[in-house]
């Protein structure tokens, strides 16, 4: 009887090996969900009414300068996000992973416009490396290409060499006033 299960071990090991850049296929309530805008918290974070509850949504794949830490361009990033969301007739969240009861991570679309892409295009955010689902590879590649264009044009956060670090921003390297 024990020998009949031995053939399963290689199969289980193979199934457990996945691309480290992709999330596990986790059960998610909805892939796309229409929500109501409540408040902008930062360039890459806002509150929305989701299923009747107000929840904080962290924007997947991007990081903008923080207004709490008074980082240069933080207010510009927040203003762009606020403008896109306040003026939108329809806001959709597209999920990869639904986390916890209060924090949600999602791609945010305002009237069909990808908010993350707009932040990257204007140099008001950098691409944050984080896992993504198989069905989001094209979206993530598009965000990466948009960030590279902003870098080449040296707009926003890319205008001052050294301001963008590996995982955060260096306000002391900001070269404009």
TrEMBL record:
Name the UniProt record assigns to this protein? TNase-like domain-containing protein
Which PROSITE patterns does this entry report, sorted A to Z? PROKAR_LIPOPROTEIN, TNASE_3
Q: Which InterPro entries match?
A: SNase_OB-fold_sf, Staphylococal_nuclease_OB-fold
Q: What is the lineage of its organism?
A: Bacteria, Bacillati, Bacillota, Bacilli, Bacillales
* SUPFAM superfamilies hit by this protein: Staphylococcal nuclease (SSF50199)
Under SMART domains, the record lists: SNc (SM00318)
**Its domain of life?**
Bacteria
Q: Which residues cross the membrane?
A: none
Q: Which organism is it from?
A: Kroppenstedtia guangzhouensis
């Amino acid at each position: 009887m024990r020998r009949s299960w031995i053939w399963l071990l290689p199969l289980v090991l193979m199934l457990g090996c996945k691309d480290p850049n992709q999330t596990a296929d986790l059960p998610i309530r909805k892939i796309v969900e229409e929500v109501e805008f409540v408040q902008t918290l930062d360039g890459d974070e806002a509150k929305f009414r989701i299923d009747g509850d107000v929840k904080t949504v962290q924007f997947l794949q991007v990081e903008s300068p923080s207004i709490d830490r008074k980082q240069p361009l933080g207010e510009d990033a927040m203003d762009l996000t606020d403008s896109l969301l306040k003026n939108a007739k329809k806001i959709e969240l597209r999920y990869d992973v639904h986390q916890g009861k209060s924090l949600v991570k999602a791609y945010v679309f305002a009237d069909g416009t990808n908010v993350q892409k707009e932040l990257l295009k204007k140099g008001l955010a950098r691409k944050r490396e984080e896992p993504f689902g198989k069905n989001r590879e094209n979206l993530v590649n598009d965000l990466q290409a948009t960030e590279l264009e902003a870098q080449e044009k040296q707009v926003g956060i890319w205008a001052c060499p050294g301001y963008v670090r590996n995982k955060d921003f260096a306000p002391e390297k900001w070269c404009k006033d």
